[in-house]
Design brief:
Helix content: 25-40%
Number of domains: 2
Strand content: 5-15%
Oligomer: single chain
Distance between the termini: 37 Å
CATH topology of the largest domain: Rossmann fold
Mean pLDDT: 93
Low-confidence stretches: none
CATH superfamily of the largest domain: NAD(P)-binding Rossmann-like Domain
Number of strands: 18
Number of helices: 12
CATH architecture of the largest domain: 3-Layer(aba) Sandwich
Order of helices and strands: EHEHEEEHEHHEHEHEHEHEEHEEEEHHEE
CATH class of the largest domain: Alpha Beta
């Protein structure tokens, strides 16, 4: 008997979330393969909020049935974490669970999935045999949306300080239809920079981007729409002292730039090329500490685009930020695209689209929601890709498509090994019928 497929509507607790894992185009494909497809209506009945960027009619045209109750479905596609009250017994779920690192906020979700004997496949963990992620659409989009929102935050911050600036008319990503429309705003800001320059009352605008991965690439693609010159670390102080006002500057750091060996280990580290340095850091994180004290005094904007976990040193601690801020207040805005609360940036916390920034006061380590003229403004929106919901959904759905037929046709009644799922999807199966799979047995401790 063929599986019946369901598509969830995102929860009302996910502010501004309108993405979907399965667009109408891929819904049509599922139906053409002969499967029944149930789709929750886009409008949440509790508050009338639209929670999907695509209309119900588009799914109906594809042949889907719009239905609030998905209990008939046995394979259900979501996107972000599911509300624990919506978990149905003995279903197969696909979504970003944010559980495999032991995230405390989602441990009850994990427990409920176990209690309901669910199967959980996590998009974030779909990877090849070399552990390279295969579904990465949202990382690019997050970088792009995060850079737009950070430039918007810079414009608002300077406005509050009474400083006329070329970033003032850049809006938050959620206020434009898609990436094409944001380019028009950036073109206008770029022309203003070329003609009028950046404000003379602040140093030349230098944006430091941490990391060179896909999130960083998305951020850089936005920044490069402005008159932008990339500089290296050795040029940082000279650009700060005498850089042009008719452009902005981009400094992109690899991990061996943003971290340094602790003093007692320096003699052991000679003759290494960049790849050696990166591998040494990955294998020996306890030998390193942040190098940002060398960089922070010169940068206006800091973009955090790195993956981080607890065994690695923080790139920006409260103490380091306080030390820098006591003597230098060039840093105005931080865009924390990775948004790990208390993570690589120690004072980071989640923000949402409808309340996207807070102000951090390094001297006394306190926070205020929203913009303030002093302090450091931090943009750490936790679901940035949904600001470009259509772009993000289409890109994600296209990346998922090569696996889609195998996922919906798999046998979820027997063992994982005989399910017919391809290896990358098996790698992403956290639990199977309520029991943690061998790869994720360590997660049992998170539910007790």
């Amino acid at each position: 008997m063929k599986n019946i497929i369901g598509i969830l509507r995102e929860g009302i607790d996910k502010h501004g979330e309108k993405r979907t894992a399965v667009t109408p185009v891929n819904a049509q494909q599922i139906i053409d393969w002969g499967y029944k497809l149930l789709v929750e209506p886009a409008i949440d009945p509790e508050n009338g909020e639209i929670k999907r960027a695509f209309k119900d009619e588009d799914y109906v045209k594809a042949g889907a049935v719009i239905k609030n109750n998905l209990s008939e479905a046995n394979v259900i596609f979501g996107l972000k974490e599911i509300n624990i009250n919506k978990i149905l017994p003995e279903k197969t779920y696909l979504f970003f669970s944010h559980t495999h690192k032991g995230q405390i906020k989602n441990r009850q979700l994990l427990k409920n999935l176990v209690e309901n004997k669910a199967t959980l496949i996590d998009y974030e963990l779909i990877a090849d045999n070399n552990n390279r992620r295969l579904i990465t659409a949202f990382t690019y989009i997050a970088g792009s949306a995060g850079m737009v929102d950070t430039l918007w935050a810079l414009g608002q911050k300077l406005n509050l300080k009474g400083i006329e600036n070329p970033f003032a008319n850049i809006t938050q990503s959620i206020n434009v239809k898609n990436l094409v429309h944001i380019k028009d705003l950036l073109d206008k800001a770029g022309e203003k920079i070329k003609v009028e320059g950046t404000p003379e009352t602040i140093p030349p605008v230098i944006c430091c981007i941490l990391g060179k991965g896909k999130t960083s690439t998305g951020a850089q693609q936005i920044l490069d729409m402005l008159p932008c010159e990339e500089i290296t670390l050795d040029k940082l102080s000279s650009v700060y002292a005498g850089g042009s006002r008719k452009k902005i500057y981009k400094l992109v750091l690899e991990v061996y730039d943003m971290y340094k060996l602790k003093e007692k280990y320096k003699k052991e580290f000679t003759g290494y090329n960049d790849n050696d340095k990166l591998n040494h850091y990955i294998k020996n994180p306890d030998m390193y500490e942040s190098n940002m004290e060398r960089i922070l005094p010169f940068v206006t904007v800091l973009m955090n685009c790195i993956i981080w976990s607890n065994e690695y040193p923080r790139v920006l601690t409260n103490d380091l930020c306080k030390k820098n801020y006591s003597g230098n207040r060039t840093l105005l805005v931080i865009g924390d695209v990775t948004c790990d609360p208390n993570g690589s940036i120690e004072f980071s916390k989640e923000t949402w689209i409808d309340n996207p920034v807070y102000t951090y006061y390094p001297i006394n380590e306190t926070f205020k929601n929203g913009f303030e003229s002093d302090g450091i403004t931090v943009m750490a929106v936790t679901n940035l890709p949904c600001e470009f919901s259509v772009d993000a959904s289409e890109k994600f759905s296209n990346e998922l498509r090569p696996f889609l037929k195998d996922i919906i046709s798999a046998d979820y009644n027997g063992a994982l090994s005989s399910s017919g799922l391809p290896e990358p999807i098996k790698n992403a199966a956290i639990m199977w019928k309520g029991i943690f799979t061998e790869k994720y047995k360590y997660m049992e401790e998170y539910i007790y």
